[in-house]
């Protein structure tokens, strides 16, 4: 198959999968699109929003559109790591001999919904870390690979903080994107009422298999990135660090810690998926600008002044992107300085 044919196949499959999800989910096209970007880039996605906005339903609907194994974990304060990854149990065979047998946990799935992830203790939250980063888990000294593709979609509630455990920065950094799910507009609310209070319900068809997802992930990594686009991605991430002498004034004033190199990786890989989804086999500056907020908002830690003044991280990222564009425009000498 030619490269053009592979790109066209991806565009068709991407649009078909998004259309299937939109049969059920109303008004969250950008969120759906960004979730698909994260999945095809090989990353994991964190969805943040108040209850009732369809976060869980979105993830379940996406799983219905894929020929993949789906698993859900409802995070609670009493959840233990073994409840996620599994454990060795003693079983007795027909001859009366006892031996250990591994009982697989719900993490052994292609799509894992970690619902209200911030309600579990840090010890339990960390049970996901190895699987998210390495694609395998270690139990009883034995490493067990997770099925490919493996994709974690986690949800959390930003307003009800009683009895919750905020995700540690190391775990937040493992998420490719952090998406903020907004409240629906009036027309969208009317559409939700119409769809959910009638006797009929939408049927979601499976339009993509696991091997398709793996193949598309390989195709995405082949998308070329021009030098000036790569430089801009690096510049944006560097400009989030207050100690860097070329950081913009808002970053130096309000930021305690900037984004890690995973932020730059998320920017470039996400931009590759966005370009390919639009039928382009090259990454543009607009792709980076469109994905800067979801890729970096959870990787920037505000200092005391930033917290006290309730600085909006998305607005801060917009300032950083504009500053980085200016620096890149000044030439490679300014970039390397």
Give the key terms:
13 strands, 5-stranded parallel sheet, 2 domains, Helicase, Ruva Protein, domain 3, alpha/beta, two-stranded parallel ribbon, Rossmann fold, globular, 337 residues
Describe this structure in words.
With 337 residues, the chain is α/β, with parallel strands linked by helices. It has two domains: 3-77 and 108-199 and 207-214, 3-Layer(aba) Sandwich (Rossmann fold), CATH 3.40.50; 224-331, Helicase, Ruva Protein, domain 3 (Orthogonal Bundle). The protein contains 16 helices and 13 strands. The strands form five sheets. Strands 3-6-9-1-10 form a five-stranded parallel beta sheet. A two-stranded parallel sheet has the order 2-11. A two-stranded antiparallel ribbon has the order 4-5. A hairpin with a 2-residue loop joins strand 7 (136-139) and strand 8 (142-145). It is globular, with a radius of gyration of 21 Å. The model has no long low-confidence stretch (mean pLDDT 88).
